[in-house]
Amino acid sequence: MSTETAARVGALRLTESLRLWAEAERLIPGGSQTNSKRAGAFALGAYPIYAARAAGCRIWDVDGNEYLDFVSALGPVSLGYGHPAVDDAIREQLGRGIISGLLWPVEVEVARGLLDALPGAASGRPRAVRFFKGGGEGTAAAARIARAHTGRHVILNAGYRGWPDVWAAGRDPAVPAELAAYVLPFPHDDLDALRRLLEANAGKVAAVFMDLPYSGPLPEGHLAPCATWPTPTAPSSPRTRSSAASGSPSAVARPTAAWSPIWPSSPRGWPTGCPWRPSPAGRR
After folding, report:
1. Which option is the CATH number for 3-74: 3.30.43.10, 3.90.1150.10, 3.30.365.10, 3.30.70.3270?
2. pLDDT of 88-121, one tens digit each?
3. CA-based R_g, the chain, Å
4. Domain 140-246: which topology?
């Protein structure tokens, strides 16, 4: 399809978007700084590429076409573009500066607000907030924390987590293939596959990562069958048993359960009885 033909698919004119995209492909690897926004992931020539402005729930492309924006900047613009309260807060901080070698009080304010708003405030568990620039970085940090806490290395994962090596292993030839043994995928809707992975890797699983599929929410109570599963355990090796029996300092005690991620019950279907919650005795 020629640029001119593609620019006139249906009644939508995208001449300027396609001109900018052609230049971007020469200047930027992949044409975009964000893979999930790259034009090739959509209907190239029939889908807008570059925005000129946005307000409320509407966005205009560089060719003057107007749209209702259901994409919402891939999620974060939940209040719409140019919400007065958000814009006022940004202007106020801009007047003070936005980057410095010192911390800003607003970091404490936002952390406090998040902890007050998130479920589980009355649980009595120590809680804290750490900010990250994106989901890939945040989930990579969560995987590292889980591995440090449990002393295990295997992660079971359903869903997309971004481009860091911890998640790209096994699907990107640029990442050492050996790392794929430590991140094992399973389908969102196949709890039997999850159970088989837990059993096959008993005593090795640091955490289970799972999110909602792009196709829509999971059925209410989707994880309820997990409540009936016994906690997978692995027999200790002869070396560990002999070390423990002899009182050797090389015998290191590790947490004994594989069920670690903490998800509160919510309208989106996480069951109250799912064992992926902390035990009354403490961290699991």
Report:
1. 3.90.1150.10
2. 999 999 999 988 999 999 999 999 998 888 876 5
3. 24
4. Aspartate Aminotransferase; domain 2 (3.40.640)
